[in-house]
Amino acid sequence: MKAAVWYAQKDVRVVEVPEPPKPPKDWVKIKVEWCGICGSDLHEYIAGPIFIPVGTPHPLTGGTAPITLGHEFSGTIVEVGEGVTNWKPGDKVAPDACQVCWECYSCKRMNYPCCEKLAFTGLHTDGAFAPYVNVPAYTLYKIPDDMPFEIAAVVEPLAVGMHAVRRAPVIAGDNVVVFGGGTIGLSALQCAKAAGAAKVIVVEMAQARKEFAKKLGAYAVLDPTQCDVAAEVHKLTDGLGADVAIECVGSDKTVPVALQSIRPRGIVVTAGVFEKDTPIQFNNVTFPEKEIKGSLGYNGEFATVISMLSDGRLDANTMITGKIKLDDILEKGFMELINNKDKNIKIIVSPK
Q1: H or E segment to which residue 306 belongs
Q2: Pairing relation of β-strands 320-325 and 291-294?
Q3: Which of helix, strand or coil describes residue 99?
Q4: Model pLDDT, residue 274
Q5: pLDDT-derived band of residue 347, with 50, 70 and 90 as boundaries?
Q6: Angle, to 10 degrees, between the axis of helix 155-167 and the axis of helix 302-310?
Q7: Where does 160-294 sit in CATH, by number?
Q8: What pTM was computed for the model?
Q9: Sorting pLDDT into bands at 50, 70 and 90, what band is 273?
């Protein structure tokens, strides 16, 4: 079968690989319908390896480059391994990408994104930019029969946004500023609104993404090249500042601005993946007693997102800006997102 495989920085190839074997004990084999290109895939292509193990095998999965990418996916179970009793061939699923040990301090407390041996499907073991993939049964979430596979492929990034909102947490009546209008930023925007935020302000430079933010309900969209973002956020929140800022860019320039944009005892949640060190004057944290919280992936938010997609509180369809075939993943996927970032949100890939 063909798969999109990461070999090194700026070296992703569509090549023939063996089909996954019969799934091992407690695992299932999935026929992939759609898989989204994630920002972390682009980070690995442009600046990797970041997560992908090179040389030294991953302590949980044993995986090492070359690795088949892809973790934002939906599909149908075609085979189950020994011991799998709650799932059967034909079930439609959207799997969580986290593979964990269930033995460490965090796993025993169900805080699995903090697992000491955390692995991601498609980064630490072969993923879903391929017709078939094997994953642990504990990662599975059932999707409704009437939910299109394209929509289900966006459950994963929406769950990232939901987790960031819950990490704050955003509560009814809060004013929120989201840095970044890409997939995760727009997911955080929607999830903050669903949580009852009074105003959700989005910070974004790309014109098309500004329009997407407005369409998905942003109270205001601020362009950092055209205004003093922190000052404008204060104006829009009666001079106080936002209760919560959610950083979804991973830029060394955004966290300091996010800190300036929140009220005393406000909270900054960092959900972006950073390629550079970020300079912070910590007196700006200490004196006004502000908080910075990390947010990685998700912690069971798939079920909530699937429910909210089903009843219309979340919108995945608006975020899908491209549907392509696996053979076109480099030119019409990776390079399109890199070179035409301002025109795209989520490109999903069919391995058929």
Answers
A1: helix 302-310
A2: unpaired
A3: strand
A4: 86
A5: very high
A6: 110
A7: 3.40.50.720
A8: 0.95
A9: confident
Q: Within a 13 Å sphere around the CA of 3, how many CA atoms are in the beta-carbon half? A: 26
Burial of 55 (0-12, 13-18, 19+ CB in 10 A): exposed
Hunting for tokens 């955004």 — which residue is that?
254
179 forms bridges with which residues in the sheet?
203, 247
Joined tokens for residue 71: 């973790």
CB 1 within 8 A of CB 17: yes
Q: Residue ranges of the domains in the chain? A: 2-154+316-350, 160-294
Percentage helix, strand, coil for the chain under 3-state DSSP, each rounded to 5: 30, 25, 45
The class (CATH top level) of 2-154+316-350 is: alpha beta
Of all residues in the chain, the percent with pLDDT exceeding 70 is: 100
Closest CA to 127 of 329, 346, 345: 329
Give every CB contact of residue 255 below 8 A, 6+ residues apart in sequence.
247, 268, 270, 278, 280, 292
Q: How far is CA 312 from CA 100, 126, 317, in A?
A: 31, 33, 11
